[in-house]
Design a protein that fits this description.
The chain is an alpha/beta fold and about 250 residues long. It has a domain of about 160 residues: Vaccinia Virus protein VP39 (Rossmann fold, 3-Layer(aba) Sandwich). The protein is about 35% helix and about 25% strand. The strands form two sheets. The protein has a seven-stranded mixed beta sheet with strand order 5-4-3-6-7-9-8. The chain has a two-stranded antiparallel ribbon with strand order 1-2. A hairpin with a 2-residue loop joins strand 8 and strand 9. Helix 4 crosses helix 5. About 30% of the residues are buried.
């Protein structure tokens, strides 16, 4: 009798395991066919007690549906093409504001005779391509923008600590991302290597880091140091002239 009971329990266990496996497969391979709209999200919830009345703020969803409320909401969204995403990025107010700030910096480089429409410019740690757009808008056509994540057609992928370019191929190298570099010395070394003798490197750093940034340049000499605003922050732009050799090397 005990043997029959044990056999029955083993079969029941296998059957239940089989059902559980089927349920998991169903969940992983089939999306939900029904989507329930989330309840209204009021801006305030009023609570009462015997002594006072207060309003408790409740987070309100960001405009434009930036964050989905459910997996169904996410699945129902239209997927934008790379061209559409780029167009949306370029039309944003934050993007335009940073481009405007960079344009004023590049005007200063034009005044110093380090930038012209015929210049070959490298933008390192270009992010979303703000510098490339600002340079193109000012009339500079030959702009190469690189970052660890590409954003075609504005930014191509490259390691700023190991730039895939020959020595001295650019007239100007610009970066507003030196402060975030993993290896600042190597970062600056690569900028100097890819700029021709007589060309320039321009970096934008926080004001309290200007001294450390200047010391990183071994093949260049300081031409200008200007207080600037970038993204609403008080920064410093260092403009260095490339000497074509290490400053510690004999003449």
């Amino acid at each position: 009798m005990d043997w029959h009971v044990e056999r029955f329990l083993n079969r029941l266990s296998l059957f239940l395991s089989f059902l559980a496996t089927l349920s998991l497969l169903h969940l992983f391979t089939r999306s939900s066919l029904t989507c329930t709209a989330p309840p209204p999200n009021p801006t305030h919830v009023h609570t009462h007690n015997s002594t006072h009345h207060r309003a408790v703020p409740v987070p309100v969803p960001l405009p434009g549906g930036l964050h989905p409320n459910s997996s169904c909401d996410l699945l129902s969204r239209a997927h934008l093409s790379p061209e559409s995403r780029l167009k949306k990025l370029l039309s944003s107010s934050s993007f335009s504001s940073r481009v405007s700030s960079l344009s004023s910096l590049f005007q200063a480089l034009e005044t110093l005779k380090f930038l012209s429409n015929s210049s070959r410019v490298l933008a390192v740690s270009a992010g979303a391509g703000h510098a490339a757009v600002a340079l193109n808008a000012s009339g500079v056509a030959d702009v190469t923008a690189v970052d660890v994540i590409d954003l075609p057609p504005l930014v191509r992928r490259a390691d700023p600590h190991n730039l895939p370019f020959f020595d001295g191929v650019f007239d100007l190298a610009f970066s507003d991302g030196l402060s975030g570099a993993l290896f600042p010395e190597k970062y600056v070394e690569e900028m100097e290597r890819t700029v021709r003798a007589g060309g320039a490197e321009a970096v934008v750093v926080e004001r309290d880091g200007a001294g450390e940034a200047r010391a990183l340049f071994r093949r260049s000499s300081l031409v200008a140091e200007r207080n600037v605003k970038l993204g609403g922050a008080e920064m410093v732009m260092l403009v260095m002239r490339n000497n074509g050799k290490n400053s510690s090397s004999p003449p």
